[in-house]
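Hi R.,

Here's the chain you asked about this morning:
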Amino acid sequence: MPNSRNKGANFERSTAIEIMRHFYEELGIRLTLKRDLEQYRAADHGDLIPDDPTFPFVLELKRYADGPIGGRDVWWDQVVKASKAVNKYPCLIYKYDRRPMRFVMEAQTVFSVYDMPQRQVPHAKVEMELPLFCWIARELWKP
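And here is the predicted structure, written out as tokens:
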């Protein structure tokens, strides 16, 4: 039986590498992400820390065999709480076995990229793949 903590740590490392590679190859942006070891000692921390404090997202990562589309509500609640603590956008990244990695953020975050009028859409989320997440992050990032 696999150790779930090791599985999560390996997913955090590999996801950090994948996101950094994509930012550089597709957007020409050098971004360094590292695991936040404080997440094990204190609440309200994301899983990955960017080298640039102006990066607009708190990233919470989950790796499981299976689960619901959009991830579990408790995962979303966790990243929302962590993002409010540092005044950033929440982003849940999850992966189920034999399925692609998925990125979940608030619909309001996507609206802000397109300069759409601010709409009150409570609890509305958008799920996407890595390229769209990187594009949105680039548009919101003001280094």
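One quick note: The first helix runs from residue 4 to 27.

Cheers,
M.
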